Amino acid sequence: MAHTALVLGATGAIGSELAKKLFASGWQIRALHRAPEIPAGQHPAYDWRRGDAMNRAEVVDAARGASLIVHAVNPPGYRGWAERVLPMIDNTIAAARTADARIILPGTVYNYGPDAFPLIAEDAPQNPVTRKGAIRVSLEHRLATAAENEGVRSLIVRAGDYFGGPPANNWFHALVGPRRPPRGIRYPGRQGVGHQWAYVPDVAETMLRLATAENQLPVFARYHMRGHWDEDGTRMITAIRAAAGTHLPIRHFPWWSLRILGLAWETGRELRELRYLWQRSIRLDNTALLSHLGSEPHTPWPQAVAHALQASDDKAAAR
């Protein structure tokens, strides 16, 4: 019998890509969505259920019979984290407890402060310096507590900044901007400072491989991905220029404007909090992942960035 996965956030970057890979591997996909109809461009073979991740009864009901719950849902544009993030994970934990399912969570680097830099292992101290980071630490703490006290299984896969998926909450799209073809690259980092990126299909493939080895995972499992490491900030720029077929000029990212815009624009205020992640070279240590899987899925830079830029073009054309 095919396994069933409930996907929360099935229209987002990680949720949609992981659902696609699970389905191709023989899983039945059940997707929770607030609209009653199948979202435009989404897979018609999924079992689309009307519901909201903020409604515990709807999440628990949708999870019945599932052995996996993909918790890939976040408030759009970084808005409403304080009010929504923790209630949503509490609902997912309740659903996993009822269904005896494992939770898969895409992890973030926000959990860590400078005391964990520059090379971050899974057991590094989590002393965040932002509001979002503190919320994510609380979220993961709830998963760990549920695992220890109730045996609720979870898997956290942590990676760098996503590219190659939908533009929501995505730094890659901040680099190339909304116009097509792009007129320049707005790079947020300092010259010579490394930055870690994560190609969405590679992240989803890593999650798939870990999920299919369920009997080898601890109750509370955490793994870090190396992803696409840009040692000095130039590799992503070079790859974007090659994919665009032109020598795009580099423009400074307008951090100064976020201070002003953030007074009335919540997304801008939240983005500005993340500046510290662009000011120092920070890497995730994937030693544990390599030990478990033997290798990490990795699409070459040119192919990955070309796909990401094409996805941005398609999004712009659809507007």
UniProtKB/TrEMBL annotation:
GO terms for cellular component: cytoplasm. InterPro entries: Epimerase_deHydtase, NAD(P)-bd_dom_sf, NAD(P)-dependent_oxidoreduct. One of its GO terms (molecular function) is aldehyde dehydrogenase (NAD+) activity. Residues 5-215 form the NAD-dependent epimerase/dehydratase domain. It comes from the Bacteria. This is NAD-dependent epimerase/dehydratase domain-containing protein. It comes from Salinisphaera hydrothermalis (strain C41B8).
